[in-house]
Amino acid sequence: MNQDTQIVDLHGIGQDEKSMIEIYEATLNTIWNDQETYLVVFDKDGNQVTDYDFSTGLRLIQDDEKMTVFVNDKEMAAGMWKFFGTTAKQIEPAMIQERVYSEGISDGDNLHETRFGENPWNSHRNSDKYVSFAKRSERIGICRSCPLLLQSTGECSVDGKNVIELTKLKKAYCPVEKWGDKNSSLYYMRPRGEESEEWIKEEQKDFERELEDYLDN
Q1: Is 184 in contact with 212 (CB distance < 8 Å)?
Q2: Do the Cβ atoms of 52 and 58 come closer than 8 Å?
Q3: What is the pTM of this model?
């Protein structure tokens, strides 16, 4: 969870409200889980066009009454959009998370992907575990053209994982191996003290069984 993600013009000074597409209104000082907060734009057939998170277009503005998630209208792709947000609050002894949603329609300009820079997630999340914007665009493009993707949620129907976030991670891979390097990813994520080769073989067997069950159904 990172609260350093494009907190823009927190008091609203200098922000032209006409240039804002308001996405979601929250209470003051809401804490957002930026790795589970994103907006997806769909075409008229319900297929995903593009997505935004706090590193690539979603922004926050706060006044004396509320905090608003917004996107600049010049950056917003045209189409129906859905916002999937995750907020967090400390209720001792635990941190409680809540999913929030909103949706709308934008008649904005076409998306210009180069505006995000080469490594937006590494820059804003202070980590080197993310791929470049170009590599992520390649991966998510494969997912969005794949019949195994549940377009409405962004989940892969093979393993249930959400590709919106998964495709950004260096060590991630497609469960049917359309992108990423499964063996090197499994080696990186292997439990300590286990022989990597044997563990990879077992993981491969489990995957093949799961895939066979899925295809049979």
Answers
A1: no
A2: yes
A3: 0.76
Written as one letter, the residue type at 166 is L
Q: Helix H segments across the chain?
A: 120-125, 133-144, 163-166, 182-189, 196-216
CB 109 within 8 A of CB 22: no
* Highest mean pLDDT: which range of 17-31, 103-117, 135-149: 135-149
The string of DSSP letters for 129-140 reads -B--HHHHHHHH
Neighbour order of strands in the sheet with 67-72: 20-26, 67-72, 59-62
Between CA 52 and CA 58 the distance in angstroms is: 6
Residue spans per domain, the chain: 1-109, 129-217
DSSP 8-state assignment for residue 162: B
